[in-house]
Amino acid sequence: MKKTLEFKAHDGEIEDIALGPDNKVVTAGRDFQCCVWQQDQLVTGLRWHENLPGIPDKAYRYQACRDSGTFLGLGTVTGSVAIHIAFSLQRLYYVKEAHGIVVTDVAFVPESRPGRELLGGHEAALLSVAVDSRCKLHLLPSRRSLPVWLLLLLCAGLIVATILLLQLAFPGFL
Prior knowledge:
Protein name: PREB protein
CATH class of the largest domain: Mainly Beta
Pfam families: WD40
Largest sheet: 4 strands, antiparallel
CATH architecture of the largest domain: 7 Propeller
Order of helices and strands: EEEEHEEEEEHEEH
Membrane topology: Single-pass membrane protein
Keywords: Endoplasmic reticulum, ER-Golgi transport, Membrane, Protein transport, Repeat, Transmembrane, Transmembrane helix, Transport, WD repeat
Low-confidence stretches: none
């Protein structure tokens, strides 16, 4: 193996590292940060005091991270578990103290046939393992969205309504 890149990602030790899509790398460090990197450039990051106001930095620390391509799963030293959108780090799911103590690892259920059966109607499933000798399954409910056909129908209706209103406001418009 040959080193191709070296840069300072965190102040202190790195707790976990995960490879994501498009050659992105996610790191969780002892400096209370979780960062998404493209090569040696910081794409975006999370800090507890910005993400969860009112919770002191020193009480929580990211311990484990996994990037499914769409979502980023995180575990903390206090046993909390979170799921974020990978590209924006918007939090979608959070369970404070899901475990009694340190979450040592998290992993997304793969999108294979058995994995889809486990998902049911949920958008994602994250497994968390902790020092409390427990493994827990966290299910991310599907976000509600409009079907494409309904969205196209609404757009067509808006166009027809606009033309009719213009015709009423300006007779002879068409």
